[in-house]
Amino acid sequence: MLSQSLARVKPSPTIAVTTKAAELKAAGRDVIGLGAGEPDFDTPQNIKDAAIAAINDGKTKYTAVDGIIELKQAICDKFKRDNGLDYTPSQVSVGTGGKQILYNALMATMNPGEEVVIPAPYWVSYPDMVLLAGGEPVIAEASLQTNFKLTADQLEAAITPKTKWFIFNSPSNPTGAGYTRAELKELTDVLMRHPHVWVMTDDMYEHLAYDDFEFCTPAEVEPALYDRTLTINGVSKAYAMTGWRIGYAAGPEKLIAAMRKVQSQSTSNPCSVSQWAAVEALNGTQDFLPTNNEIFVRRRNLVVSMLNEIEGMACPTPEGAFYVYPSIAGLIGKTSAAGTKIINDEVFATALLEETGVAVVFGAAFGLSPNFRVSYATSDEALKEACTRIQTFCAGLT
Q1: Same-domain pairing of 373 and 315
Q2: Predicted confidence band at 134 (pLDDT cuts at 50, 70, 90)?
């Protein structure tokens, strides 16, 4: 009864971990969830007020399929202000979260047998969306030695005549790794040698950049890529608006029109009230961003420090987002206090949850093992307790 296309994909592992943690908590277990990729901050008040005003003003009807003109103009202004990129509203698409934007673009462009180069570690949904669209994901593995960032040689080796897209994400989910301008320029130089390859850049964590790291995006670094780049962003992470479900992208008009066609036959417009809230998010004060980032830096440093105290674990300090991606290469083959042999990172994460109540996502879900992902978008107290439990669990391995 089910389609062959659906048989090619698997459910989201991050959602599965979050669901399992919620079930254990509901059953009375003391669970600390470090799996969800969403800030614990409340949506800023000015954004909530804009949504309430939209409701009171009756702005609750259908809108244009891929966004109201006011939001599209705000997006154009944002790209100009933050990235030096010039777009018109006809080059902008608004969807129900960044995930829908990615999905629409792949569904609108992929043909059977065409390839998409995806650096690993990757966000869990990239390969499965490519498969669902009929394409073939080509995984290019980065490593701990390069701080989980793809090199130019690795990108060059992954590109074939069948390559249609290169998916790029910085700062990264799941590692938090951010590419410097020089590192990104090396990748765009490769792409300039392959004019048949388009760039799908996921900039969702743009404003979550720490220390002296400066965010940049491919079409900004190499303007010659402008006509074959889809620049994707959204309000979910930096603006603490995950449940509002607004993502957006800008790119060539022909591509945007094709994505609009897909959306017109699937969801139609994103929530009208959420769109007006997003207008305020992009146009309104940005003063809370540095404050939130200070909190994230403190939490990052706490987690990195405590995890690096564990013998057999190595945890790089990420440049952005709110994740760390420690390696457990030195723990593979050991046995937990409850008798579980740690043969891979999935077994490690399962044993950690069952024996300590700490929920993390195993590295194989992101295409690179043996690692696990911690989201530090929760309270300092919860993070300290969780890391203490991880330390105790690892100390008990023999």
Answers
A1: yes
A2: very high
